[in-house]
Design brief:
alpha+beta; two-stranded antiparallel sheet; globular
């Protein structure tokens, strides 16, 4: 009976770890030509006129670059300090 309990606990623990690993969100960092950057849950197809650059989630700007974080919820991009939804 003890072996069954140990096996059940190990299986539950393993399935829990598998569940955590499968729910990691893919994300990206998006920046515009004016130096505003924000996080997105997925990289959208931005209009070419928006001047958007999509970076991987772990991206960091260099020491001589100047960007600012401007978070916003929803699908869109920053243009001249205004959130444009599309």
């Amino acid at each position: 009976m003890k072996q069954i309990m140990k096996f059940g606990a190990a299986a539950t623990f393993g399935l829990g770890l598998l569940g955590l690993a499968s729910t990691t969100a893919s994300a990206a960092i998006v920046c515009n030509a004016n130096g505003a950057c924000w996080h997105v849950r997925r990289a959208y197809a931005y209009p070419p006129s928006a001047g958007i650059v999509v970076h991987p989630n772990g991206w960091r700007w260099g020491p001589r670059e100047r960007f600012t974080w401007r978070e916003h919820v929803g699908r869109g991009y920053w243009r001249n300090g205004v959130w444009v939804t599309f």
